[in-house]
Amino acid sequence: MSETKFKDIARQIEQRIDEGIYPPNAKLPPHRELAAELDTTPATISKAYKLLAEMNRVESFVGRGTFVVGESHLNQAIQPSESETEFNFSILQPYVLQNLSPLRIAYQKASLAFTPELLAYTDHSGHHAHREAGAMWAKRYGLNSATASNVLLTNGAQHALSLLVETLTQPGDVIAVEALTYPGILAIASLAGRQVIGIDMDEDGLIPSALETVLHTHKPKLVIAIPSHQNPTGITMPIQRRQAIAAIIEQSAAYLVEDDIYGFLNEDTLPAICHWLPEKGIHVSGLSKAISPAMRCGFVVAPEHLLPVLNAHIRANVWLASPLNFIVAEQLINSGDAFSMADAQRDIAKQRQAIAKDILGDVISESDGYHVWVTLPAHWQQERFVMEAKQRDLIVTSGSYFVAGNTNPNCIRLSLMSIKHSEALKQGLRALKALLESHEVSLAPF
Ligand SMILES: Cc1ncc(COP(=O)(O)O)c(C=O)c1O
After folding, report:
1. Distance of alpha carbon 88 from alpha carbon 86, whole angstroms
2. What integer pLDDT is reported at residue 153 of this predicted model?
3. pLDDT tens digits, residue range 92-110?
4. What is the average pLDDT score of the chain?
5. At 309, phi and psi to the nearest 5?
6. Structural domains in the chain?
7. Gap between the Cα atoms of 53 and 69, Å rounded
8. Ligand 1: which of 158, 163, 188 to mutate, most ligand atoms within 8 Å of CB?
9. From 167's CA, which of 140, 186, 388, 389 has a CA 20 to 30 Å away?
10. Does the beta carbon of 226 lie inside 6 Å of ligand 1?
11. Based on C-alpha coordinates, what's the Rg of the chain?
């Protein structure tokens, strides 16, 4: 094979992408097929696809093929409301009417705590008192080892995840995730040119033997798991499963990133997986889901040996996470208000779960968090359902945005928290129920 042949082929494919012959999100032809058409070998096509992936023009998924990079799945999964008449089931956020007044008061009070030191640049990654508050938060929800000295402050959990992917892996490295996972993780991996491998799950989350196989076969540098109220399946890993996962990671060369942003929703606190991984587990939490995503307050608890490299990355990237919001976080956590606000959100989620169960019945996942994972009846295909729902002002998220493995879920995710009034929630759920049961629509031309 000539040294440059694959580059010529990559240019030809890129031209087809630019001309719309291969539109955004389209699956590219299999290697063998395109090789025959372009009079080359499958190995050359493979090198061309790899080059295009490095240029962020295409994305490859093991077992699924190579796709033209389109609008980020993250953007498609979470849709802002376009009108008052819509029922928006796509946004996983705390119930806004609950935290509005306590937050207004907290921000007013916090402004009185401004000092010249707090308004200045600091020469370390965040103020001690703010990191101490972060440690209290992580401790309260299952990670006893958190202290001010092993907590880092980030601009939300998303920043934390991207920080960890960028510091603990190199371009081309493999990251293992749950077979169905939060699209924000997939977006980071795609942007940073990391390969993603999905690990099979059962009703208790990541399957230990599947994790072992992936560690052995693909040698990922990082495993990312969401152990509580998993996005999107709603699964909470029981304690035995957490221990089993920790034991496997301990024996491997990989680090575990535990995204525990929904840990506060557990009625009885469960130990974090990182509890058993003092040297290899990195725990991510924050206030976005319990209080407000607008605060952008994230907490990372990391083993001591990783702190310098993580701190250096935060500094190079954003200097430091905004201390003004962490003043509020510190006050809310120290006064206990943050925990009461989180409890109140959990109660609302429970009430709304009961409403959803009542209206939708058995098609929804067993969960008590902010969302439900709905298995569609056989006569519905998920993309089609999402489109038909949108026509009826029902904004729901297709299961396809969460796929990291070989699964094809035929599911949708519904957030129960973003519709303000419970009567409107019921109305939206009833309309969804009617659509789920309707056969006629699904027979109409697509
Ligand atoms: C599992 C998971 N991790 C992280 C995030 C992002 O959190 P933040 O708003 O703190 O960046 C989300 C938001 O939906 C999420 O579901």
Report:
1. 6
2. 97
3. 999 988 888 889 999 999 9
4. 91
5. -70, -35
6. 5-68 (1.10.10.10), 76-97+339-443 (3.90.1150.10), 103-338 (3.40.640.10)
7. 9
8. 158
9. 140
10. yes
11. 23
